[in-house]
Design a protein that fits this description.
By secondary structure, the chain is of the alpha+beta class. The protein contains four helices and ten strands, in the order H-H-E-E-E-E-E-H-E-E-H-E-E-E. It starts with a helix and ends with a strand.
Length: 215
């Protein structure tokens, strides 16, 4: 019985120590995280045209967007290798496991538009353009938002800031009502060797949209 109490006491002390360490970690501070993620995302948000991303990433970049409405998951993946070359990508419908592709079609991105060989395939992707062409993100803007939760992992350097936001620009891009409240997460990691940042948006009706830019 004594050994059991000692074990419980030991585990309690370990748990308390972990809480103290997390609380004292300066990287779990809102100001640090907003400076970290706001500074990096401001390199992309805003960017007037997709091609202008070459100013930040001269060796090329990738964009991945996805949205889930109900049980259906759709993704857009774009690879831009060098300035002046055609920018191509795919639209996919993904199975319940998040891996297997039920449907996939190719497109080229020309003159600010998706160009499909079969225009009927455009119906698989309802969004035209990119959120970073419209949205401005930086440390100052983030500091004014209603923060719901912040997270920083000491194990791998992953971090996330989640806000409660009503933004007419975002709502219009997603085809929602102007006054609809959204949960918006900004995500990144100190372990990334290059550039890799995401914005994820949810609403109460089950819509889930993500946009990731990487080099």
């Amino acid at each position: 019985m004594k050994g059991k109490r000692q074990k419980v006491l030991f585990l309690s002390l370990i748990g308390l120590l972990m809480v103290i360490l997390v609380g004292c970690n300066p990287r779990n501070n809102r100001a640090y995280l907003e400076k970290r993620i706001g500074t990096e995302m401001s390199r992309v948000y805003p960017t007037n045209r997709l091609e202008d991303l070459f100013d930040q990433f001269p060796d090329g970049f990738k964009i991945r967007q996805s949205f889930m409405d109900g049980d259906d998951l759709f993704t857009v993946e774009i690879i831009a290798r060098s300035k002046g070359e055609p920018i191509s990508g795919t639209v996919s419908k993904v199975g319940d496991n998040g891996i297997d592709k039920i449907f996939e079609t190719n497109f080229q991105y020309l003159d600010g538009k998706y160009q499909f060989a079969n225009e009927a395939d455009a119906a698989y992707w309802p969004y035209r353009g990119f959120l970073f062409e419209k949205l401005t993100l930086n440390q100052n803007i983030l500091s004014t938002l209603d923060l719901e939760e912040k997270f920083y992992s000491m194990m791998n350097g992953d971090f996330e800031l989640r806000y409660k936001v009503t933004n007419e620009l975002i709502n219009s891009f997603l085809g929602l009502g102007n006054s609809e409240q959204l949960s918006i997460s900004l995500e990144g990691s100190n372990s990334n060797r290059g550039y890799y940042y995401s914005i994820a948006i949810k609403n109460a009706e089950g819509l889930y949209f993500t946009e990731t830019v990487s080099d």
